[in-house]
Amino acid sequence: MTTTEDAGRSLADRQRQLETLERLSGRFGESLTGALSAGAASGKQLSAVLDGIASSLTGSLGRTATSALQTVLTSGLQGAAQALTAAASSLSCE
User: Which of 12, 13, 20, 52 has the highest CB neighbour number within 10 Å of its CB?
Assistant: First the structure.
């Protein structure tokens, strides 16, 4: 792959990441607005509403971190398995 192809792929990856971040930030804003509105409508104190939002964010961040960690570990294990397979293959050819 050429440097130009790498740069193009990198740019496309960054564009997808940006679009994902924009979508997630929009959802976050909608969720925050909805939670504050629902809390105000039901007469809850602001601290109770904010505690609920914090709890929801913590759960969401935990799921996101777990997913990212799973992806990294899977990729690393696949790479290690490929390296071991290649090493075993080169040993058997000798």
Answer: 52
